[in-house]
From TrEMBL:
<dbReference type="Pfam" id="PF13223">
    <property type="entry name" value="DUF4031"/>
</dbReference>
<feature type="domain" description="Nudix hydrolase">
    <location>
        <begin position="119"/>
        <end position="254"/>
    </location>
</feature>
<dbReference type="Pfam" id="PF00293">
    <property type="entry name" value="NUDIX"/>
</dbReference>
<comment type="similarity">
    <text>Belongs to the Nudix hydrolase family.</text>
</comment>
<dbReference type="InterPro" id="IPR000086">
    <property type="entry name" value="NUDIX_hydrolase_dom"/>
</dbReference>
<protein>
    <recommendedName>
        <fullName>Nudix hydrolase domain-containing protein</fullName>
    </recommendedName>
</protein>
<dbReference type="InterPro" id="IPR015797">
    <property type="entry name" value="NUDIX_hydrolase-like_dom_sf"/>
</dbReference>
<dbReference type="InterPro" id="IPR025109">
    <property type="entry name" value="DUF4031"/>
</dbReference>
Length: 261
């Protein structure tokens, strides 16, 4: 197992930065970074951004110095490289996520202010907050878990229309499509049985805010969710921190000050 770091040559936020990677294991990478006090918010999906003033510490702790080509090659050869669009931020790769139908997939989580191309998107989810910053959650008996409102696209509807419809069906709240702000996405691999051969492998995530304090949630009769509540950020974590997508919620609502895109 080898940890590699390139010299600090990448400018952002008035500093120079390095990229710290493992050629074998993200678990090894996280453990190494934690041992040096490098915060998890510096993780970019397949590497840590390390500020120039910590470069010597990283090398002294055992990381080998490499040029950027060696760093990228190590990620590619290990299979740990997280392909992403320019400007997107990798948050986490979650292995072997299981679903109620018995299937499973690896899921890459990203923050991004740019919506994904619609042909790739099979579903949408909305982090819905009120004016005080509380979160709307719904309970799905099929998945036996709490989560943000959302669901699969129907027919030829747009992704935004998909998100607006799901929020209305599950909470009774009406949103305007322009009020939805893209904040991230979940990318599934391998392709799941939900769209065989279609190439649809992305769940689009939006943020939206209602202009009142905890308006009453009134889902449509017959909606599959069975409970609906406004909760604080702390309560949101208590109910959902064990779920595979939780690192994305943390990244959206606690933006990093360490690291760069």
């Amino acid at each position: 197992m080898t940890l590699l770091v390139d010299p600090p040559r990448w400018p952002a936020y008035g500093r120079l930065w390095s990229h710290l990677v493992s050629d074998t294991s993200l678990e090894e990478l996280h453990a190494f970074a934690a041992g040096l006090g490098i915060p998890r918010r510096g993780f970019e999906g397949d590497h840590y951004d390390v500020p120039e003033e910590r470069f010597a510490d990283v090398v002294a702790a055992g990381a080998q110095v490499s040029d950027i080509r060696g760093v990228v090659d190590a990620l590619r050869h290990s299979g740990l490289r997280m392909a992403k669009r320019k400007g997107d931020r990798g948050v986490a790769r979650v292995r072997g996520v299981g679903f109620p139908d018995g299937t499973s997939a690896d899921v890459d989580l990203f923050t991004s202010a740019r919506p994904y191309a619609e042909p790739r998107v099979f579903a949408a989810m909305v982090f819905l907050t009120d004016v005080a910053g509380d979160h709307a959650l719904v309970y799905s008996p099929r998945r036996a878990e709490w989560g943000a409102p959302g669901g699969w696209r129907e027919g030829s509807e747009s992704v935004r229309r998909n998100a607006v419809r799901e929020v209305h069906e599950e909470t009774g709240l009406s949103l305007d499509e322009p009020s939805l702000l893209a904040c991230g996405y979940e990318r599934f691999a391998p392709l799941g049985p939900w769209r065989p051969g279609s190439g649809s492998d992305v769940l689009q995530v939006f943020r939206a805010e209602v202009t009142r304090r905890r308006p009453r949630l009134r889902p449509h009769p017959g909606d599959a969710t069975t409970a609906h509540e406004w909760v604080s950020w702390e309560e949101f974590g208590e109910r959902c921190a064990h779920l595979f997508w939780w690192p994305l919620a943390e990244a959206v609502f606690d933006p990093p000050t360490w690291g760069h895109a």
